[in-house]
Design brief:
Two copies of one chain form a homodimer. By secondary structure, chain A is α+β, with helices and mostly antiparallel strands. Chain A is built from eleven helices and 15 strands. The longest helix of chain A is centred in the middle third of the chain and has 23 residues, at about 255-275.
Amino acid sequence: MPVNLNPPVAAQLLPVAGVSLGIAEANIKRENRRDLLVIQLCDGARVAGVFTKNRFCAAPVIVAKEHLDKADGIRALVVNTGNANAGTGEQGLQDARSTCAALAGLLGCKSTQILPFSTGVIMEILPVAKIAAGLPAAVANMSSDNWFYASQAIMTTDIVAKAISKQVVVDGVTVTITGIAKGSGMIHPNMATMLGYIATDAGIAQPLLQELVTQVANRSFNCITVDGDTSTNDALMLIATGKSALPEVTVAGSHAYGILLEAITEVAIFLAQAIVRDGEGATKFITVVVEGGRDEDECKKIGYAIAHSPLVKTAFFASDPNLGRILAAIGYAGVDDLDVAALQLYLDDVLVAENGGRAATYQEEDGQRVMQQSDITIRVVLNRGHVNATLWTCDFSYDYVKINASYRS
Amino acid sequence: MPVNLNPPVAAQLLPVAGVSLGIAEANIKRENRRDLLVIQLCDGARVAGVFTKNRFCAAPVIVAKEHLDKADGIRALVVNTGNANAGTGEQGLQDARSTCAALAGLLGCKSTQILPFSTGVIMEILPVAKIAAGLPAAVANMSSDNWFYASQAIMTTDIVAKAISKQVVVDGVTVTITGIAKGSGMIHPNMATMLGYIATDAGIAQPLLQELVTQVANRSFNCITVDGDTSTNDALMLIATGKSALPEVTVAGSHAYGILLEAITEVAIFLAQAIVRDGEGATKFITVVVEGGRDEDECKKIGYAIAHSPLVKTAFFASDPNLGRILAAIGYAGVDDLDVAALQLYLDDVLVAENGGRAATYQEEDGQRVMQQSDITIRVVLNRGHVNATLWTCDFSYDYVKINASYRS
């Protein structure tokens, strides 16, 4: 079960002026499942995004990037689950384009004004006819109050839907931000089988919106890992409709930009952490903090070495303070001149290791106490600089293997 | 159970002139277990080794390197299981030195002529008194016929002991090579919780012996991975006693060197593969071949991305040809200019993917057939150069989690 993560409450998800959402059953992989989502945007809405860096990126990722580059003004996003349209070659590109064309026909816009997204099994041909057949129902379903159902429609192996709203006052104007995300496996920095859609009614100019979404991703979705696998399909999209009374934000250093950056990042961190809390088979949510490094690169190297280690992750699953495994991971992280005798390792508030070994004050029962918690912080203090990094991950359980050994069946 | 790996047969393990081995019960972690091994060498025997690159390397690794650097002539190696003496700081160094001193006292040599090795739990203090108390029995047990028992004494979570002998004729002289190894988890390139000891009665000069063991490791132990964790304690030691009639080998390019390199590499590959076949929870032995790369680095990057992917490994456990997961791993391996449309992916003889997607000829039942096997080869043909690399790994099962969630209890 997800670790300290409640499902969203429909009434707490706020509409974003200029955005409406329609859901339908397209029977893509299974019958009787809402597996198709259309997000329609008002005229003048702006969209920016960050995508997977996987070289085998999926066809919809390629097409979405092309369409964003055209800058024709995006009018809608279409998302299907049940099939990732990845590893599908030339046919996959045609299928992603056909999906856009079908929706463009219904909405009376150009194909290039549609962004396609897919998630699900890789290397199977996208059933475009089913999607095209489902689109009219999705369009007919369109409402600004559908965020809750949209968050459910994009789930794959997720147990709990992920959605949140936040309001913030900028220069006297109340601005709304609502976001949804999906993903629970194949989660790694530079995106994951992770789809995230965040919309605000603030107006934010291009290319500032692109800069904003990149900053947001680097502090949220790019700081999580479940299993180290980077998906072919990941995307985080940020929509700014400009429907609020706030004047369009055009300068990165402005007061309004700063408030929006913090608020949108907060929404994104909630969604990113929710993905880890719902990580496949997760029983513990682990925050890895690496402090006092010379640069972000070495902090992240050490953080990811810990967060990816199957030995560390299984020890946390067992609630076993086998903390030498964390030391081993720090040691092989690839920071060649690391002085292991100079660092401290903490488990929450408990000093575990210093001077290259077990801390004199460390008692096994203190480690055991922290390991019983469902939220745990591993803190490594390197004492060689002033840079910090924080990552979020989960443990590694029988259920991870079970879910991934049977995902297709 | 280990994948296609039989236990060694005592009668097939050949003594190596100049090497004798003694085993004892020292009650290090448990009672009634042979957990202490002494390997005594004749005068004039030479030793070289490669060690873990983990910055948190264990105390015995540090001391063994120091003693090798002294070049006083190594007279014995001492190996304990049950405790890794890693993450033990200054106390750990003292303990490793005390162990050497105790054995040196019994053998009448200097401490610096002893190499210490430990394997087992990290971050617990080595019970030196127990080891010192066990050493006389190990010395009394000394015999050149003890390779079989030695291979058993160094096991930790291993299910099957790993040992092999080989004879080869060099310039008319029969040379014997016998090797043992242990390890089944925390296995990664640049060594693993892996200890390997290979001895030959050939004479090989220093520093040529060091060059030889490095070449051997790069083609064997540095090509395996179980879980991507690199241990604090790994070591591969190569002993050349010079007791055969073969003149000492002094030149890397010589005929004798070439024959010995191949024969010792063959022994090392057997032992390295045995470690993977006995990988924690393994049900399948997977060979990953990456062909047609521009350099070894990119071939290994792609090979390890596949071999480390929990999603790929769980799919193999499930015998599910969910081969898109392999494409995803190739895509995120970090080869930035990789043209995914130019490569082919094979599962044994079955062409699975080409032109960026599923091969037109690929039938799911062909993939299914190969996935039922216990030995499987994944072959990636990059078509961008002439360099190849081969790695060996195993799948990821419930039992991996079970073993590592309960190792200390």
